[in-house]
Each structure stands twice: as C-alpha cells, then as structure tokens.
Design brief:
Structural class: alpha/beta
Helix content: 25-40%
Radius of gyration: 20 Å
CATH superfamily of the largest domain: Isopropylmalate Dehydrogenase
Number of domains: 2
Largest sheet: 8 strands, mixed
Shape: elongated
Low-confidence stretches: 1-5
Length: 314
C-alpha cells in the first residue's frame, strides 16, 4: 500500500480520570478523518477504556522508528505505549514523547486531552498553554478559543484576578494581537476584524489611573498604524450582544473569564482551544476533565471532533 503524505495527529489523552477516551471513541465512530492518529498513552489504560466503551476499531501499537520512517497509513489509529502510568511523571512522559516527535519534524499537529493542572503542573506553570510553550522556548504565544463565527483570546491566561492589572501592558497587548493577526493571515487566509475589550466596567474607572485610556487605547492606536484591523476598547458587558459581536472575527479580552465565559455560553462545545505562536499547531477540546461525568457515557464529543477536523485539513 502506498504511504501517504498526511502528517500524523499526535494525541496525548491526559489523565486517566477524565472523559477523554469516551469522547475520543465517539469522535472516531461519528467522524471521517484522513490523517493518521497516534495516541500517546499507557497500554493498560487504553485497553481498559476500549473494553469499557466497547470500541472495536483496530488500534495498532507502534514505536518511534515507524513514525520516523513514515510507516504509518492514513485513516489508521496507532498508539505509543508509555509505561508506568502510576508515576507522578506519567503525563510529562507522554508529552516528552510528543515533543520529541514534533522536534524531529515528523509532524506539526498535537491534541491533548483534559488535564488536572494542579496535580500535573504542581504550580510550576499557570496552565498547559504555558507549560507547552516553555518546552519549545516560546515566550510569545496566545490562547485562541476558536469558532468559525467568532473567536476570543485573553491577553492574560491562567492568572488570579488580582494579578491581572499588574500584567496588562501596552507591549503585551500589541504582541498578542499581532500573533492573532499573523495566525489568521497564515493559517486561515484572511485578515481578521479584531475587537478589544476594556479592563474596567464600561471602560471607566473611579481611580486616577484608567488602564483603558492609558494602556489599552494607545496599544490599539499603535496596532492600527501597522495596518491591523483592530478597534476598541469596548465595554465587556455589551460587546457580545448579537448586533455587536457580528462585527468581529475575534474579541480580545484582558483576562481569562472575561471572554471565555461568554463564548462558552454562546457556543458550548462548538469551539476549540488553539495555542498560537508555537512552531506547530496545538489544539485541545474546550473543556476540562469533567470528572463527575466519567463513566456515564453522556459527554458531548463535538469539541474533539472539531479539533480533529481542524488539524486534518492542515
């Protein structure tokens, strides 16, 4: 059989106690994919999940050399066995293999499943976005919650709210929005219309120093001079109204929940989390481990289906 040119999609399922395998099996049953899929996980965990969810499609054990020599076929599912799943470094070991494959230039596509950040990162990193970026020495990156109708991106990511004002700078805003603009131009083929949300309620402040006029507005004006289609700052309590949000491709907020809460309310599972600015495409379903739903077989696979489809076309 002729080998294909499709680069594999690497998949790190993440922690054992999550809904990932349930939604993965549902995604494969209901979705046609072309790129080879390579799970990086423990064999015993995988076998247990296959039995639990009665998934009978063949998943073939492979090693690094088979990927290196392009001995994988389209539309097939493979897995690389990571031993000792009980180790506290198990998740890190999975990512280490994925990073090695990416750094060898064998693929530029990575999906990771839900991960309990407090247990895995042990407060060394605010979130998985920062952990993955650090492993590739990338200091300039952005979180994009992507939907083809409307996407959002927070300037600060996994920070306690009281730390946000200390991190918001003109330089950081310009950097993040330029990364977003470059991604849309290079990966999606068009210049996005970007709306920027203010930090304070109604973009007003009782204090003498107003971040919206002193930091955010100057950053927007500077970006306009670079021919970027950006405007604002807009009050966050009205920008997501239907007549307002339809004016934009991306809405940029100053902190995590300021823009993630409304976009998840609008689209629920119909969105994916993309880390942009990396030398590869890292995508994750836009939800967490959801431990209370584990084993109930009621979880919605839509976000993972979108993640696979997004990478399958690139």
């Amino acid at each position: 059989m002729k080998l294909v040119n499709f680069k594999p999609i690497l998949i790190v399922p993440g922690q054992e106690k999550s809904i990932f395998f349930e939604i993965f099996f549902k995604s494969i049953k209901s979705n046609k994919f072309i790129s080879p899929l390579v799970l990086i996980c423990n064999k015993k965990i995988l076998e247990k999940e296959i039995k639990k969810y009665k998934f009978y499609k063949n998943i073939e054990l492979i090693d690094f050399d088979k990927i290196l020599n392009n001995k994988i076929k389209k539309k097939n599912i493979y897995f690389i066995n990571i031993k000792n799943s009980s180790s506290k470094n198990y998740i890190h070991d999975c990512f280490r293999v994925a990073f090695q494959i990416i750094k060898q230039g064998l693929t530029n596509k990575l999906i990771n499943g839900p991960i309990n950040k407090s247990k895995t990162l042990r407060r060394k990193y605010p979130g998985m976005t920062e952990y993955i970026s650090k492993n590739f020495n990338e200091k300039k990156f952005a979180m994009l919650i992507y939907n083809n109708k409307l996407s959002v991106s927070p300037i600060t990511t996994h920070l306690p709210l009281k730390m946000v004002t200390k991190k918001i700078t003109k330089k950081l805003i310009i950097e993040k929005i330029m990364i977003i603009n470059t991604f849309y131009n290079q990966k999606l083929g068009y210049k996005p219309k970007i709306g920027v949300v203010g930090l304070n309620p109604h973009c007003e402040s009782l204090l003498k120093f107003n971040e919206d006029t002193k930091i955010i507005l100057p950053a927007i004006n500077s970006l306009k001079k670079k021919n970027i289609r950006v405007s604002g700052p807009y009050p966050s309590d009205t920008i997501f109204l239907k007549k307002n949000r339809k004016k934009f491709d991306v809405i940029v907020g100053m902190y995590h929940d300021q823009v993630l809460t409304p976009v998840k309310t609008l689209f629920e599972y119909d969105a994916i989390n993309i880390t942009i600015g990396l030398p590869f495409l890292r995508v994750t379903p836009d939800h967490g481990p959801n431990e209370i739903m584990v084993g109930k077989n009621k979880s919605n696979p839509k976000s993972l289906i979108k993640a696979i489809n997004f990478l399958d076309k690139r």
